[in-house]
Here is the input.
Amino acid sequence: MNDVAAIVADMGRRARAAARRVAGLSTAVKDEVLLRTAERLVEAKDRIRAANEKDLAAARGKGLSGAFVDRLTLSDRVIDSMVQGLREVAALPDPVGESPRLWRRPNGLTVGRVRIPLGVIGMIYESRPNVTIDAAALCLKAGNAVILRGGSDAIHSNLALAEILQEALAACGVPGDAVQVVPVTDRAAVLELLRLEDDLDLVIPRGGEGLIRFVVENSRIPVLKHYKGVCHVYVDRGADLEMARRICFNAKVQRPGVCNAMEGMLVHREAAEAFLPAMAADFREAGVEMRGCPRTCAIVPEAVAAVEEDWGREFLDLVLAVRVVDSMDEAMDYIARYGSNHTEAIVTRDYARAMRFLREVDASLVLVNASTRFNDGGQLGLGAEIGISTSKLHAYGPMGLEELTTTKFIAFGDGQVRQ
Amino acid sequence: MNDVAAIVADMGRRARAAARRVAGLSTAVKDEVLLRTAERLVEAKDRIRAANEKDLAAARGKGLSGAFVDRLTLSDRVIDSMVQGLREVAALPDPVGESPRLWRRPNGLTVGRVRIPLGVIGMIYESRPNVTIDAAALCLKAGNAVILRGGSDAIHSNLALAEILQEALAACGVPGDAVQVVPVTDRAAVLELLRLEDDLDLVIPRGGEGLIRFVVENSRIPVLKHYKGVCHVYVDRGADLEMARRICFNAKVQRPGVCNAMEGMLVHREAAEAFLPAMAADFREAGVEMRGCPRTCAIVPEAVAAVEEDWGREFLDLVLAVRVVDSMDEAMDYIARYGSNHTEAIVTRDYARAMRFLREVDASLVLVNASTRFNDGGQLGLGAEIGISTSKLHAYGPMGLEELTTTKFIAFGDGQVRQ
Here is the structure.
């Protein structure tokens, strides 16, 4: 076994051992670790900025893009948001130990499910060092040990943040192995981590589609992920067109680079003539490029003719695919074919079609008369989120604290044996 | 792409297309398919027996073991139990469409989770043809399409059962692609199935540890599985020793070849002198071989000295590892090291130790004063089960109908956009 494999395997074993301790921590101690980390972040701001500066200098030296350097930067604003995030997670209710219901079997055995931590979680992410703190906070609050593997370009920043976390854990008497940052930048470390099926219970990759596919293809450990968000709004015939304009504008323009932004707009042919010109005027003003089907282009002269690759594409930019459809069935077929099971919305006044859309569309969030931008743990009321899952097992949609736990069965007997 | 790959990929595509239809079926139609299948099984018994006879003749010709031939046999008793199983699943409540709770966000958006089918499930199992019917029934009732891949030695039996299912689906107007049996016996078909990550949502392997490891190592699709059941009973100091005898006897002897049978018995040293001789007498009478630690062997003369491999071993037979421990902590450390996260029980009179054992032991079912044999969907009150999961994601413990579903978020708005 080479060095990287040995280092990573040892981290896994230590995390597994720590997980038993972490699972038994009281809510008060877990919250104390989070609040103490927040305090230390503020106190040690200079140290963090200095470490971050090393990463930034290296990134600039390599000629990495401005957007990349931007994501890598631990500005005062980013540090403040980490501090704020820690305080919010500390304030959330602790899911561990909840037992919604006990029931009694005919033989008198009392049975129930009780919520428990998953155990050890591996986070694999790119060069946003703030994820180190955000993910550690959520995993820890849900009673898990965590191994964090951020992008190699953020290594100095991540190790500085790991030090802060270690100080907070030590101050609260919690084993340091509960939160570990992989110190190896070699990509082989990721592969080694994905092989530790005995010591890791879950892997969460966060980043581009390439990273996520790499993790899924190489992992023997269960993975929660989403590849991409190709979200649609369907504007029904008879819809309130003013409402439809506000919703579509918000879904596309409010933050175009995120996974719950609208990438495709579907318009019923009976609404198209009245809706598209006004909508196009709003989009024109905001600099949105419309790529339309022939019927769209006939109504909106400045729309560009869409090519096949535009349908189902995640633009992550002020670009939008637009198609006029003959029926809601056509819209739903389109979504089944080109959607990504992320977020789908209908704007309608019709009760039956609203209910059918809600029931039949397969996406982690389906909305009636609201913007796709609401697919977010905070917006839906789960508190913070560690990501959004578009695969169905365990979690479908935003993953909050509860999704970082599982349940076991417990049974209270008085001597029952099986007949 | 070769033939096997093409056949399996085509089955996946057809299953995915059928899944949308199956998800929308009413409970009444799904139940009708199950009851109709039960009727056809009775009517077509001779046809099934004839197909099964071909498999049995081939198995005998290959010199396969009596136990193997036994599992392969569709006797009247096995056919009756399939019929009974279908009727029981039809009588269970339909989980699809349940929404335990809706909540309202400050902006007026009403949000909730609603239970939906997983989509397409792949079942990979060995040569018990009754699994074909049992698994199809559960998957279908939960609104899923299913692809069934049984052992190659059961191919004629499985295809005959598939025909029955097809007749029932057709009679109820449900697409035949909802339930498909892989007609290819080549093992390559399993590998091809495990690559269909776009068309399958879940794979459930059932069989020996070798099959399950093969599936986990080769699958890009989420897998729910358990490798083995190494279950323990810990007899605490001060326990009711008569109760402990009854529970340990039941856990070991009632059905030794199953995953929830006891494989290791841990006895507090203060209970050992009084408990072990009487327990050993019961076991002797039942033909149970005890493999003990030195302290056990000193008390029970006929106990064989255990070797290291006996600790944590799944005997699946009338053999038992026995260890005397100094404390409950030692017992829990032993369970953490040698257990398989399946089922663990304590026999005690002490309230605090009972609660600590329930809280700290990591297993899919933890019991106080009851036999490990209760880890079963039917026994715990879930209705039928499709298997027991010892990994924590999605399901931990017996998997009933609910575990064959997931939830999506829905939101009822009246024009909300994100600020």
